[in-house]
Design a protein that fits this description.
binds adenosine-5'-diphosphate, Rossmann fold, binds magnesium ion, 15 strands, 3-stranded mixed beta sheet, GMP Synthetase, Chain A, domain 3
Length: about 375
């Protein structure tokens, strides 16, 4: 007769099963997921396939799919079960890698319900980063995704104006005893802006600590709910605020916006380089060329390349980064931004079709991103 572990006190089989499952989970609570820094039971990575004849058959997921990591996980589970339940148990552990989606989604601690976090950046200010962010967000929502927009541009938050919500404030709601900010819903997009936190004219004063705190609140203490896409409108340039943003938020990819003008391209290159630094290492989803040409309303067939032609397209070819598309410089895009109703909402217009094709390109590149070969990072 084998000696039964003390947990097996009830002769009823189902009862034995339930007790033993419980004790298996208790034993495995001592096993940490090395990358996710929590035990595998709390993370929900354990599935008990079968328990019978002194054999425990498990499936355990690991973050790192490498062979040695799987082997170590198998060993750790066996060790934990033997120590807690006794050496007489035979332990079979099928170790499988966590699927890419689960890794970036469900198990992430920061913004756990958000599938894709895309930062929109530019080297230079005034190139249309916020215009692109707003239209992209509304466009993705129109395409059927759940979308949030986080306006993190402490130097010039413009989402409140571009979404006509200057006088709105996020509500504070209580959830599980915690006070959370509820983003403002407009045009199908959930919006939070650093502009909600203070008078824009004071922005200079609270660069630094205050801004970091507001950003952290918008990320950690906001009820975004489940989202397919969170678009982050970053400040222009490559400063400290970008580094803290990168530390704060698990950004999936960045989009760099530039005009075809050489001074803008030079700064766009710096932006691209920043994302490629070791320690930041955020893939560039692609480049968007804004103000690619000028078309006057009265001469819709004419294109004037006032900032130069194809500058961003050439940059994307040089760097081997996808080109996501172009937006012309047209008065209606500027007016739409000022009026608080992004240009993509103007049905049947040229602007709408250009933005729609950028949206489709973003969706496609995002689907392809996990399969993309990683570029080597550069040292700071
Ligand atoms: N394609 C465009 N056509 C016309 N005006 C544009 C276009 N893109 C941006 N603008 C206008 O240029 C100004 C700067 O754009 P914005 O998106 O605020 O730039 P950034 O966020 O990079 O500083 C805004 O007044 C905006 O309406
Ligand atoms: Mg802006």
């Amino acid at each position: 007769m084998p000696s039964w572990p003390h947990t097996f006190v009830h002769p009823d089989f189902n009862h034995i099963m339930s007790i033993s499952r419980q004790s298996i989970f208790e034993a495995l609570q001592n096993v940490m997921e090395p990358d996710l820094k929590k035990d595998i039971v709390t993370l929900g990575l354990v599935k008990i396939n079968d328990v019978q004849d002194q054999t425990i058959d498990l499936q355990v997921k690991v973050s790192n799919p490498a062979m040695h990591s799987k082997m170590r996980m198998r060993e750790a589970c066996e060790f934990a079960i033997h120590r807690t339940l006794g050496n007489e148990w035979k332990v079979i552990v099928d170790v499988v890698p966590i699927a890419g989606d689960e890794r970036s989604g469900e198990l992430r601690k920061v913004l756990p319900g958000v599938k894709h976090i895309i930062a929109v950046a530019s080297g230079k200010g005034g190139v249309g980063k916020s215009t692109v962010s707003a239209n992209l967000a509304v466009g993705l929502a129109r395409a059927g995704h759940s979308v949030g927009l986080l306006d993190a541009d402490i130097y010039g938050p413009s989402a409140p104006t571009m979404f006509d919500i200057v006088h709105e404030r996020p509500k504070v709601i209580e959830k599980d005893g915690k006070n959370l900010l509820e983003p403002v819903l407009q045009y199908g997009v959930k919006v939070l802006s650093i502009g909600f936190f203070a008078d824009i004219n004071q922005a200079i004063v609270w660069r630094g600590a205050m801004a970091n705190k507001a950003l952290s609140q918008m990320v950690n203490d906001a009820e975004w709910g489940p989202l397919d896409y969170l678009i982050i409108d970053l400040p222009p340039g490559t400063g400290d605020i970008h580094l803290s943003m990168v530390q704060l938020v698990p950004i999936s990819a960045a989009i760099v916006v530039s005009t075809p003008q050489e001074v803008a391209l030079a700064d766009a290159r710096k932006g691209i380089a920043m994302f490629g630094l070791a320690g930041i290492d955020i893939p560039i989803l692609g480049l968007i060329e804004n103000m690619a040409w000028f078309t006057p309303a009265e001469l819709p067939e004419n294109k004037y390349y006032i900032f130069g032609k194809d500058g961003v397209k050439n940059l994307s070819e040089d760097q081997g980064i996808p080109y996501l598309g172009a937006l012309p410089l047209v008065q209606s895009i500027r007016e739409a931004g000022d009026a608080g109703r992004p240009a993509i909402l103007q049905e049947g217009t040229e602007a709408q079709s250009h933005i729609d094709s950028i949206v489709a390109q973003v969706e496609k590149e995002m689907r392809m991103l996990p399969f993309r070969k990683k570029k080597a990072t550069t040292e700071a």
